[in-house]
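Hypothesis: this fold can be encoded by more than one sequence.
Test: take the structure tokens below, design a sequence, compare later.
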């Protein structure tokens, strides 16, 4: 077998693995419903894969690109993150079975993205949610998604840090904390776009302040590697107002 054939075989296996992780009977039925409703025409290709969900680019009937996030039914990571649900009064009645926890995280992300949309935060716009399948706006240029910041760095230097911290402050004033913010959950286009809001909590959550401090600390540490320095305590005081 040639190197080219080996590469193609590897890519095929990886694609099968990626698709089989989320395209079970339930997810396929939900995607079919979205197509029948005229929300989707087809699912194109995977944008990103993670422990909890995979994200795909999809196309609507009018040719518009959207992002489709499908949460996985393999829920070990979710049980380790039950604290993100238990302390959130919006999800107090969630049962601890696999199915309800997965759907709760999908619904949680949808609700958090709705808050961001109302605030004008640079983040995906939530369009539709069915069980564990979330349809959002596609963040990219042309046919390709924007890269995450860990891949390309802060392309606009200190402006990117200002934009991210301003978004964190706006969310905090609206009683929302991302709770999983890092260079891996920020896409860089004309401006930074915050993504992956499944762990986001409101300020009534008992660990909201700790999550905020962790978010800000991680972002400041990352920018420090790129020669852009801000003080943690000073930044937190500014965010909290």
């Amino acid at each position: 077998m040639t190197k080219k054939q080996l590469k193609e075989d590897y890519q095929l296996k990886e694609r099968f693995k990626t698709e089989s992780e989320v395209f079970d009977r339930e997810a396929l039925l939900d995607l079919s419903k979205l197509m029948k409703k005229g929300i989707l025409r087809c699912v194109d290709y995977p944008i990103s894969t993670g422990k909890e969900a995979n994200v795909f680019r999809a196309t609507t009937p009018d040719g518009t690109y959207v992002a489709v996030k499908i949460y996985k039914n393999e829920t070990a990571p979710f049980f380790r993150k039950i604290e993100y649900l238990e302390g959130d009064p919006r999800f107090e009645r969630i049962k601890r079975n696999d199915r309800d926890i997965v759907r709760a995280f999908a619904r949680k992300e949808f609700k958090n993205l709705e808050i961001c949309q109302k605030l004008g935060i640079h983040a995906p716009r939530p369009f539709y949610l069915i069980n564990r399948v979330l349809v959002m706006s596609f963040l990219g240029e042309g046919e390709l998604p924007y890269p995450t910041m860990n891949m390309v760095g802060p392309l606009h230097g200190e402006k990117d840090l200002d934009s991210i911290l301003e978004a964190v402050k706006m969310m905090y004033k609206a009683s929302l904390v991302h709770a999983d913010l890092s260079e891996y959950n920020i896409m860089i286009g004309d401006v930074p776009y915050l993504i992956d809001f499944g762990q986001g909590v409101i300020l009534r959550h008992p660990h909201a302040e700790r999550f905020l401090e962790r978010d800000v600390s991680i972002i400041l540490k990352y920018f420090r590697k790129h020669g852009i320095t801000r003080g943690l305590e000073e930044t937190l005081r500014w965010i909290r107002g």
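The radius of gyration is 19 Å. The first helix runs from residue 3 to 22.
Hypothesis status: open.
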